[in-house]
Design brief:
By secondary structure, the chain is α+β, with helices and mostly antiparallel strands. It folds into 2 domains: 66 residues, no CATH class; 73 residues, no CATH class. It has 2 helices and 9 strands. It has a 6-stranded antiparallel beta sheet, with no helix packed on it. Strands 1-2-3 form a 3-stranded antiparallel beta sheet, with helices on one face. The radius of gyration is 23 Å and the shape is elongated. About 5% of the residues have low confidence. Bound molecules: zinc ion (2 copies).
Length: 174
């Protein structure tokens, strides 16, 4: 179960933090990161330390002298990472472990099943070569004769990761 940030932190040794709602979600997993003061523990200098913003996934963290700067640093980095995710990349760099991804596909004129009536279009699909040794893209297409989803045909030329899934709230069987 994931731990949700509680409005009243019970660790009164820590100075109050600026709202964690000011933070962009983690660019790697989509969760809300944790902002906290890390004291260096020098006697008589309890306020000596640094602000750390971390995600529990372990993929992203920033440190800074004060929280405002840490937040600015985190948000800068997160928005750059999120922007980097939203770039089309060459199909040669696509994962082939069965991960569902966005694909730009050049349609096949013989088997005309693009989701949009265009030679090149966007769809979702995967390649499971790492799992079954079959290096083949399978993706969603549209049957224009009967108006239903079907297997897509064509040549994937670019890919992009899907957006991260929303974090599951509550976790108490709502
Ligand atoms: Zn994360
Ligand atoms: Zn059909």
């Amino acid at each position: 179960m994931t731990t949700q940030p509680t409005p009243s932190a019970d660790n009164s040794a820590q100075p109050p933090t600026l709202s964690e709602e000011n933070l962009l979600p983690c660019p790697f997993c989509g969760k809300q990161p944790i902002s906290e003061f890390n004291s260096v523990g020098v006697p008589g200098m309890e306020d000596c330390g640094y602000w750390g913003i971390d995600c529990t996934c372990g993929m992203a963290q920033v440190h800074a002298d004060d929280e405002e700067f840490a937040i600015a640093k985190w948000n800068n980095r997160a928005s750059a990472e999120i922007a980097a995710r939203l770039q089309w990349r060459p199909i040669s760099e696509a994962p082939k472990d069965g991960t569902l991804i966005l694909l730009r596909v050049q349609s096949d004129r013989e088997n005309w099943t693009p989701l949009e009536d265009a030679m090149e279009h966007t769809t979702i699909g995967s390649n499971s070569r790492d799992l079954n040794d079959i290096d083949e893209w399978t993706f969603a297409g549209w049957c224009w004769s009967h108006d239903h989803y079907t297997e897509g045909y064509g040549t994937p030329v670019m890919w992009m990761p899907l957006p991260t899934a929303p974090e599951m709230k509550g976790g108490q069987g709502a």
